[in-house]
Amino acid sequence: MNGVRMLPAGEQGLVVEFGSKIDEEINVRVHQVSRLITDRLSDGVIEVVPTYRSLLVYFKPLVITRNQLISEIEVLLSRIEGAANESGSARVVYIPVCYGGEFGPDIEFVAQHNKLSVDEVVKIHTATPYLVYMLGFTPGFPYLGGMSEKIAAPRLDKPRTKIPAGSVGIAGSQTGFYPIESPGGWRLIGQTPIKGFDKDADKPFPIDAGDYLQFQAVSAEDFYKIRQQVNDGTYRTETKQISRGGAR
Amino acid sequence: MMITIINPGLLTTVQDGGRWGYQRFGMPVAGVMDRFAYNTANLLAGNSPDAAVLEMTMLGGTFRFESPAYMTLCGADMQAELNGEAVRNWSSFFVPAGSELSLGYAVSGCRAYLAVHGGFDVQQVLGSRSTYVRGGIGGHCGRALKAGDILSAGNAGSLPSANKYLPAEMVPQYNEEIILRVLLGPQDDLFTNEGIETMFSSSYDITDEADRMGYRLEGPAIKHCGKADIVSDALCQGAIQVPGHGRPIIMMADRQTTGGYAKIGTVIGPDLVKLAQAKPGDSIRFVRCSDSEASAALVKESKNNEDIAAAISKQGQLGRQLKVSVNGQVYMVSIEEA
Lengths: 248, 338
Description:
The structure holds 2 protein chains of 2 kinds.
Chain A: E1 5-8, E2 13-17, H1 24-40, E3 45-50, E4 54-59, H2 66-80, E5 89-99, H3 107-113, H4 118-125, E6 130-135, E7 142-145, E8 160-163, E9 167-171, E10 174-177, E11 182-184, E12 187-191, E13 212-217, H5 220-232, E14 239-243
Parallel strand pairs in A: 5-13
Antiparallel strand pairs in A: 1-2, 2-4, 3-4, 5-12, 5-14, 6-7, 6-13, 8-11, 9-10, 9-12
Chain B: E1 2-7, E2 13-15, H1 35-44, E3 53-57, E4 62-65, E5 69-77, E6 81-82, E7 85-86, E8 91-95, E9 99-102, E10 108-116, E11 150-152, E12 177-184, H2 193-201, E13 203-210, E14 214-218, E15 229-234, E16 239-241, E17 249-251, E18 258-261, E19 263-267, H3 269-276, E20 283-288, H4 291-321, E21 322-326, E22 329-333
Parallel strand pairs in B: 12-20
Antiparallel strand pairs in B: 1-4, 1-11, 2-3, 3-10, 4-9, 5-8, 5-10, 6-7, 6-9, 12-19, 13-14, 13-20, 14-17, 15-18, 16-17, 16-19, 21-22
Helix pairs in contact in B: 1-4
């Protein structure tokens, strides 16, 4: 495959790099290859970490040599070459959000900053699914791409020291939510009752890199209802399979 | 078996081999910093290789054992005493009920490991008992131990029959100057040739900002070709990140899963044990190593662990297997190291 670089990251790390910038097409390829390596190359592969534009394969050099691993990955790459439009399906995960009020104290700032009404901000924020380029920063924190510039807003001058888990925010033209309570400077526009990381759940991480997130506006009443279900372990996140490219 | 924490020391956490398999979700691996001392401790304590131990940092703790136990201390020498009597590092010993084990400052090395027979029994989180303190995950209540905490050890059957020890020639020496082998990449192409030469020809000091997450070093600046920032990618253990100021940071067990600074190279796994036992003020030299040399180092490490396992298991058998015949009378004799 053209432009793919195989780079060493220590004696048990191999980086497969697809480009040097943030780009949806490159990232979709990263997740496609990451899944292939995870599914097909179990022997000697410890884990695969997909990020914006590359993936890191942790392997056991005593089981598979670097050169063997590289040639196996090259075979996988040659099979999917030219098949960028057939990169299979992707998952959309629906994230219920209660916007504004105590849940999103900065939503009026975001509206005023962009000369919009609060309702318009909500409408734009929930209009399209966002690609999860990668997870990082804190366990389960999704780096999302594709938010409309129409609702972009600068970070806070003074970051908050404590942001409640589930807070949905905007920083520049990025959006995302905080899976666990943490400090942060994002403009908070809402809150989701679901947990981005729950160590006791069957699926501790409801969101995976390569998924799409679709925010859905819910009332405060529904927020508390869902939160109760989450706490009881009865809530199931709503998901939908779509074909790649059909998300946007 | 219950253990009461009378004094936790500076930073004492429950650790095992780490929480592998969840980095794609942003979950740091954590786990022991010094895998050599960890492996050896579990061998000496008669544990499975993945049993959880206590990792102590710089200043050890004081512990009371409510019932008889069998344990070992490996890694940094923290002048351990059992009921006021000195105990040897890198060897196992029996502890009568009601005993107090106390450790002080590390006189050599930085991190000591206490392994008790049966392993520390805390709930597994995502397949590991390791504490990730920044995330409040794993170990005992997701945090470092505090005075008054009570830990229990797993039931591993009867206590072993004899004290065991790591043969003296296998005990590592901790030096204030260490040499770390580095495999260049993944972003060595973002550094000038002089920058790379600077790294391999200079000495770097460990600053006070050296913890389970990473070690910040002080020394000649390593020059980038252009910008130091990259589009964030995955961080492996031992990765050497170089921010714009040119001073390297070596990423350790609690490193975040992704990072946005160019990585000039990676300290090879078998050498990270030396870094785990190094303290602020100690100095580091980097030497270049090839991928085949790095793999060979890993093979050697694995062989060394096998040799240690064999040596330790022989100590037990030696004591049980000697038959002595005197004047036609057969005696079973067990021999123990003085």
